[in-house]
Amino acid sequence: MSTGRLGRTAREARTPRVGAGTRRLVMIRARAPASTANLGPGFDCAAVALDLWNELEVVPGEPDPHHLAVRAFALLADPAGLAFRTIDLVPRERGLGSSAATVALGLVTGAAAAGRNAGPEELLALGVGLEGHADNLAAALAGGVCLTWEGRIARIADAPPAAPIALVPPARQRTDRSRAALPDAVSHADAARSSAGAALLGAALASGSPDLFADATSADRLHEPHRAAGVPLLHAVRSALPAGALGAPLSGSGPTVIVWARPDAVETCASELRERLDGIEVLRLGTTPEGARIHKTS
After folding, report:
1. Exposed, middle or buried, 111 (CB in 10 Å: 0-12/13-18/19+)?
2. Separation between Cα atoms, residue 284 and residue 263, nearest integer Å
3. Which CATH fold would you assign to the domain 1-298?
4. 3-state DSSP call for residue 63?
5. Which pLDDT tens digit goes with each residue over 76-98?
6. Domain extents for the chain?
7. Exposed/middle/buried for 117, CB within 10 Å: 0-12, 13-18, 19+?
8. 61 exposure class (CB count in 10 Å sphere: 0-12, 13-18, 19+)
């Protein structure tokens, strides 16, 4: 479930051309979820799948070899003679895992076309070179609440102990530029604080504790302090959290901020944020236990 003003954007690699000589294709349709990564101190390892989906339809036609879904598909099956039509609901370059969802779509449709029963970890290993963010891709593939490290995925819960409200600015944020703001080293004190926060986060997610989750989301010292100057929304929200909000970490590298609210306070939190934040899209999003899935072949 999501509420907001996001529109549907359909894109095709090329206009499908079906005629004599075009090979007969098994049509494949799939969808993959958005995701929010880091959750504060879970830097580059924690992510949650969100109930906001990109979709892909593979039909006879000609592919665009530069399209991210086509490149992911090609890791498992030959895309020649196929067109890739996407419906993109996940905002691009906003820290909500749009590229991970696109890569996940290419991977699961490629596996289906190849007749290969590949699990999330196998697909992660294939796709992480294209996506570059194992945390988002793990959640897009496996769904739910995921931890990832050294190519592995631990899906530790169906949902976190809070409900997400996404605050989406109009400006985009390239991850590579955001990462350029990170230092090569941090102090021992900051490393220790982040380590404690990561332990708290893991305990909160595994146990479903809202109180531990609230403490964890503000505990990062590795990336958020260095990215905050480029995301003034983060300080604006954290300095006056709505009643019922547990925390407000950056979503990935930003610029989106996720306000995590107690489930019974989501509507009041969202209403207050809409009143306060001019020009920011406020989206009530659910989380989803499902990752990328084929939902039709013919």
Report:
1. buried
2. 11
3. Ribosomal Protein S5; domain 2 (3.30.230)
4. coil
5. 999 999 999 999 999 998 999 99
6. 1-298
7. exposed
8. buried
